[in-house]
Amino acid sequence: MNNQTDYVRWTEIVNAEFGWPLFIICFGVTLHALDALVVATMLPAMVSDVGGLNLVYWTIGVYEIGTVLFSAMTGLVTIRFGVRRPMVFASTLFGSGCVISAVAPSMEIVLIGRLLQGFGGGGLFAISYVASALLFPQRTLARVMGAISIFWGAAGFLGPMLGSIFVEFLTWRIGFWCFGIAAFLLSALILLKISGAKPQEQQELSDRYPFGRILALTLGIFLIAAAGINVDAIKSPLLISAGILGIGVFLVADNTHEKSRLLPEQPLNFLKPMGSAITMIVCLAAATVALHIYGALILTSIHGASTLTAGYVIACPAIGWALATILVSGSPERLDRKMIKVSLTIATVGIAGFVYAIPNGPILLIAACAFTEGVGFGVAWAFIPRLIRHISKPDEIERNTGAIPTAQAIGYALGAAFVGIVGNWSGIEEGHSGEISIFAATAIFLFGAPLSLFGLFAMKRFVK
Fold it and tell me: pTM of the full predicted structure?
C-alpha cells in the first residue's frame, strides 16, 4: 500500500485509540481560538468601561508575547517532559489570567491578565502541534489538523455570539470568568486522560533553560510595542531599533546552542527549507493581525455595525479556515506543496483586499476579504505541519513542529506592535473612546500588504 497516495479516512483518528487525545488537543486549541474572537468582539465595551484606547493593540500584543514566551520553549519542554505536564501548566496559567482580567479595574491590569492568558492559550496551541506529530501517524496529520479546524470553526461561529451576549446581556467580565472555569476543567481532563509517559527517550540537553535568549526576544518585542504608545520622531525609532537588536541577539544566540535550540537551525536562512518556512509564517501572521485588533472598533465606528455583526466579520477568517481545512484534509501527501502554493496565494488576495474594503466598505466586502484570507490559510496550515515533519530529521520533529506556533506568535506579536505604532501615529488615540478615522483605518491595513507578498516569496523557497 502506498501511503503517499492513499486517501486518509476520519476513522483513522476518530476511534478508541486516538479519541481522547484528539478531543483534548482540540479543546485546548478551541480555548485559544475563542479567546481571540470573544475578546476582539468585547473590545469596544472594554474600552468604554476601563478606557485605554491607545493601549488596545497591547491586548493582542501582550497575549502574543506570552504565547512567544511559552511556545518558543515548547519543543525543548516536550522533549524533556512529554506533553502532559506542559499542557496542564498551560491551561492553569490561562485560567489564572482570565481571573485577573475579570476583576481588572483598568486596561493596564487587563493587560497583565492577557499576558498570562497568552502564556497559557499560546502554550496549549503550540503543544497541540507537537502532540499531533508525536501521538498520531504521520499520514493522518492533515486529518488531525482538519479535526482541530472543526473546533476552530465552531469557535468562529460561537465566539462573536458569546462576545455579544456577554456585552449586551451580561458583562465582558463574565466572559473572562467563563473562560477561566473552562481552562481549569481542561487541566483536570488532561490529568485524567493523557498519559504521563514521555514521547521518546530523553535526549542529552543542557541543564539550564534558555532564559537569556527568551528575555532578549521578549524585550525586543516589548520595545517595538512600546514605540507605539506615544509616537515620537526620536523616541519611537530608537525603541524600534533597540527592539530589532534584541530579536537579532536572540536569533544569533539561539543558533549557537545546538542542544537547546528553540528554533530550527538558521531560522531566517532562505537557502534552508525550515528557514524559508519560519520566515513565511512570521510574515503572513504579522500581515493578518490588524483585523483582530482594530476590526471591531473600525466596523462599529466607521461602518455603524452592531457588536454581533462586527464579531462575525472578525470570525470570517476562522470560519473560512475551518471549512477549507475540513474539505481538503484528506488530500494525499504528494499534493502538499501544490496545495500550499495555491492556498497562500488566495490568502494574499484577501489581505490585499482589506486595503480598499476596510475604509470604504461595504461590510459584506470586508467579510468576503476576511473569509478569503481564512480559506487560504486554512488549506495551507493543513499541510504545512505534514510537509515540515516530512523534511525533518527524527530528532528534530519536536523542535521543528513546535516552531510553527512559535513563529506564528512572533509574527502576531511583531505585527501587533507595528500596527499599534501605525494606528497611534495616524491619530487613533486622539479621537473619542472607540472612534477611528478613515485615514487611520487605511494606514493600519496597508501595513499588511507588503508583508504578505514577502511571505509568498518565502513560501516559494519553502516548497521548492
Answer: 0.68
